[in-house]
Amino acid sequence: MTFEEQRRQMIHEQLQARGITDGRVLAAFLKVPRHLFVPKEAQREAYADHPVPIGCGQTVSQPYMVALMTQLLRLQGHERVLEIGTGSGYQLAILAELALEVYSVERLPELATQALRRLEQLGYLNVRITAGNGSLGWPEHAPYDAVIVTAAAPQLPQLLVDQLADGGRLVIPIGPQQAQTLTLVEKHGTALQMKEITSCVFVPLFGEHGWPPE
Ligand code: SAM
């Protein structure tokens, strides 16, 4: 099967079959070449129904989890979005297809550099990446219409809430390191509406507003 055929199968069997219905999200998954975001030796696994190691002890999340988190953000195309945990840059490429400007913070400089190079090679012009502690957000470009955290936090990081625009959506795995609850947070003025979506397992978000560094 070609990589495009594998993408179509992934969309049909892993995403649509589990309730991903946002047409723009599905189109982004068809377009973004996920196999270019994993190491060469892992390319044959790129479209499989599980996370894939990307080096530095990190993973790119399962396609369904990337799609679910993205769909929860309800992006229409005009938004400024912040991602915490760039990893391979795959989630960021999906976001770049769906929003106006996307920003991402990665703790490990090696991954940040690789992701930036990859996204440049693919021609994304609306993406900015920085290496640093994403548990503090990226205040220079706030407020964000949507924030997505792709590492697990012990509780909701207040600084990320502060950087969310009124009416904004934030999606984040919250809970102990072994297993978390994917949580959708919506900000309405000073009020926060929190909704538990599903259980999940992510690598830890390290830093002052995450877990203490190892
Ligand atoms: N979104 C990524 C992708 O599409 O490949 C996958 C992210 S991976 C599951 C989690 C990432 O969060 C790792 O790359 C890890 O280094 C990063 N991370 C952990 N703590 C962080 C922090 N405080 N700030 C920024 N990134 C962090």
Protein architecture, described:
The chain is α/β, with parallel strands linked by helices and 214 residues long. The chain contains 6 helices and 9 strands. It has helices spanning 3-15, 23-31, 63-72, 90-98, 109-121, 158-162; strands spanning 52-55, 58-60, 80-84, 101-106, 127-131, 144-149, 164-174, 180-188, 191-200. The strands form 2 sheets. The chain has a 7-stranded mixed beta sheet with strand order 5-4-3-6-7-8-9. β6 (144-149), α6 and β7 (164-174) form a beta-alpha-beta unit. α1 runs antiparallel to α2 (23-31) and α2 (23-31) packs across α4 (90-98). The longest helix has 13 residues, at 3-15. 44% of the residues are buried. The mean pLDDT is 97. It binds S-adenosylmethionine.
| Overall radius of gyration | 16 Å
Low-confidence stretches: none
N-to-C series of helices and strands: HHEEHEHEHEEHEEE
Q: How do the strands of the widest beta sheet line up side by side?
A: 5-4-3-6-7-8-9
Helix fraction, binned, reads: 25-40%
What oligomeric state best describes the polypeptide chains here?
A: single chain
**Content of β-strand:** 25-35%
β-strand number: 9
Largest sheet: 7 strands, mixed
Continuous helix count? 6
Indicate the structural class. alpha/beta
> What small molecules are bound in this structure?
S-adenosylmethionine
Report the average pLDDT across residues: 97
The global form is globular
Distance between the termini: 41 Å
